[in-house]
Design a protein that fits this description.
- With 422 residues, the protein is α/β, with parallel strands linked by helices.
- It has helices spanning 21-32, 45-52, 78-84, 105-116, 151-164, 216-219, 248-257, 279-287, 340-344, 367-370, 401-420; strands spanning 12-16, 37-41, 64-66, 72-74, 95-101, 121-125, 168-171, 175-181, 184-189, 194-202, 206-208, 224-226, 240-244, 263-267, 291-294, 297-303, 310-315, 321-325, 329-331, 335-337, 387-389.
- Helix content is 25%, strand content 24%.
- The strands form five sheets. Strands 5, 6, 7, 8, 9, 10 and 21 form a seven-stranded mixed beta sheet that branches. Strands 12-19-13-14-15 form a five-stranded parallel beta sheet, with helices on one face.
- Strand 16 (297-303) and strand 17 (310-315) form a beta hairpin.
- It is globular.
- The N and C termini lie far apart (47 Å).
Length: 422
């Protein structure tokens, strides 16, 4: 969300109510896509009638999206927003040198290097560009940005750079199946569209883990959020926020929320932060009077029917339980790799479903029977020749933005070697 300005008519305006999961989904997409917009929270039926021109706060037409050119969309989907922005497209060609699945740091990097080196490149992303890194309020340990840069800004720059070199980016599309054939493969999107790809890079990243509580899905986007929740920080003014997780993403989220919230609680299952967090984040968290770390603690129960109202915490050492009121719970619990399509395609995965590549494939029983070539797999190559993996989705990867960018660029080098041999 961007701060309101007197020139609000020049930016998109989103009108809705607090606790609406639909409103949250739209805010999150716009924020991660780096689209300037103004969020207007409606708090009375009179406001709903006057500002949004609907009957009341419970009107099914909410939220309402008003575009600078006068177009009005009532309770729009993310796809409808993307279509209005001119972002939703279908593949322009039936055949590509390189197809990349996932537009996080690894996928964006691969698109930039692939397209800049003359490969006809297609990048497919089912949500917004940037992946999990795109939700970060500030990345401070990325080379070349001593003052830090937000994940959304970094993703936008990379997206613009990939466009500049001619990469084709498909947003809100999902790759669901691939037929891996010698020398080429056929990819299928969720809408049935297919295309030929002579090489592929899987950079589909990971999904945030869930608490697996009975009413978690119902409260998603209505008090329960996955990731750093940068689009929501300004809405937490003078309130109490709970961030679950002990990794860098959780630490960055806590620091960001502390600028707005009255109090931020970091809920950590382990002893503390030293084993999981970068030292510069530990120092800042320790120095902030707004942040309190609760070690040996987990979320036991979520309370609320339509919106989160309270949570029950349990201390794993003492067994003591505590119920506290809050409507802001952000889960940064690590990830589960997005590799279901890869399993169906027969690619080798490890016990946690990460894609196995390069020398690590030798450790897997039966690999030699499947590998059809005389040469060894390239370092980032999967068990299918010409299909590579980069970033968080890969077994043994370093879960850092800079590492993902490096792997995306490196994967393109191996793509060139593969294509040259075919």
């Amino acid at each position: 969300m961007r701060a309101s300005t007197p020139q609000h008519s020049l930016r998109l305006r989103l009108l809705g109510t607090q606790g609406s999961s639909t409103s949250y989904g739209l805010r999150d997409f716009l924020y991660r896509s780096n689209v300037p917009f103004e969020w207007i929270e409606l708090t009375s039926d009179e406001q709903a009638r006057e500002l949004a021109q609907v009957n009341d706060l419970h009107d099914h037409r909410l939220p309402v999206c008003l575009f600078p050119d006068g177009v009005r969309l009532e309770c729009p989907t993310i796809r409808q927003i993307a279509e209005k922005l001119g972002w939703f497209q279908k593949p322009s060609s039936a055949e590509y040198d390189l197809a990349i699945l996932g537009a996080g740091p690894a996928g964006l990097s691969a698109a930039v290097y692939g397209a800049s080196e003359g490969l006809k490149t297609l990048l497919i992303e089912r949500s917004a560009v940037g992946g999990q890194a795109g939700t970060s309020s500030r990345i401070e340990n990325y080379l070349g940005f001593p003052g830090g840069i937000s994940g959304a800004d970094l993703a936008k720059r990379a997206r613009d750079q990939a466009h500049h070199f001619g990469a084709e980016i498909l947003l809100l599309h999902e790759g669901v199946r691939a037929e891996l054939l010698p020398g080429k493969a056929i990819g299928y999107l969720a809408d049935g569209t297919s295309f030929v790809m002579h090489a592929a890079i899987c950079a589909s990243g990971v999904e945030y883990r869930r608490l697996n509580l009975w009413n978690e899905d119902r409260l998603r986007g209505a008090g329960v959020y996955y990731g750093a929740g940068t689009s929501e920080a300004e809405l937490c003014h003078k309130q109490e926020v709970f961030v679950v997780g002990g990794g860098n993403s959780a630490g960055q989220a806590a620091i960001h929320f502390s600028r707005y919230a009255r109090k931020v609680y970091m809920v950590v299952r382990g002893d503390g932060l030293k084993e999981t967090l970068s030292q510069y984040l530990i120092d800042r968290i320790s120095a902030s009077p707004q942040i309190e770390v609760r070690p040996h603690t987990e979320i036991l129960e979520l309370h609320g029917s339509k919106q989160l109202e309270a949570i029950t915490l349990i201390n794993n050492l003492t067994g003591q339980q505590q119920t506290v009121q809050t409507c802001w719970l952000f889960l940064c619990l690590g990830g589960i790799p997005n590799t279901n399509w890869a399993a169906e395609a027969g690619l080798v995965r490890d016990e946690q479903c990460y894609l196995v590549t390069g020398p690590d494939l030798r450790k897997h029983h039966g690999f030699r029977k499947k590998w059809p070539l005389d040469r060894e797999p390239y370092y980032l190559e999967t068990s299918s020749p010409g299909v590579f993996a980069a970033g968080d989705v890969r077994h043994g990867s370093v879960k850092r933005c800079a590492s993902a960018v490096g792997e995306g660029a490196m994967a393109v080098t191996f793509v060139h070697r593969y294509l040259a041999s075919h």
